[in-house]
Design brief:
This protein is an alpha+beta fold and about 120 residues long. The chain has one domain: Alpha-Beta Plaits (2-Layer Sandwich). About 30% of the residues lie in helices and about 25% in strands. It is globular. The N terminus is likely disordered.
Length: about 120
């Protein structure tokens, strides 16, 4: 009976914890991949994650992306508009900014028609 009571009591305590309490709010940050046409694919997703990890920031998801609504000249050596997008805890945003990342939401400007899209990461050999 004592074990049963402990089991019931522990369930009551667990029910009191909402999912919102245990999960911090997440935010998307990005950095320019620094890819150059005809030359370099730029920073790899794993290198970008390593920058955040070195700053003490846990990354829960990583994607590749493209800036949209921005023109890039089609010429070797020019930029491509590719970005690396990471999902981190909202509380880590100041540290991410200090490490050179910006919030993805800053790319979106409806009036100017700019934004971003998530794309499949290219495998670079």
């Amino acid at each position: 009976m004592k074990i049963f009571s402990i089991l019931i009591l522990s369930q009551v305590f667990l029910i009191g914890c909402s999912k919102q309490d245990s999960i911090s709010e997440l935010v998307l940050v990005y950095e320019n991949r620094n890819a150059l046409q005809c030359e370099s694919a730029g920073i790899s997703p794993s290198d970008s994650v390593a920058k955040l990890t070195a700053a003490g920031i846990a990354v829960s998801k990583t994607d590749c992306g493209n800036r949209t609504g921005v023109m890039y000249p089609a010429a070797c050596g020019m930029g491509t508009g590719t970005i690396l997008i990471h999902e981190i805890a909202q509380q880590d945003l100041p540290s991410a900014r200090q490490a050179g990342f910006e919030e993805v939401a800053e790319l979106v400007n409806i009036d100017q028609g700019t934004g971003y899209e998530i794309v499949q990461c290219e495998v670079v050999e």
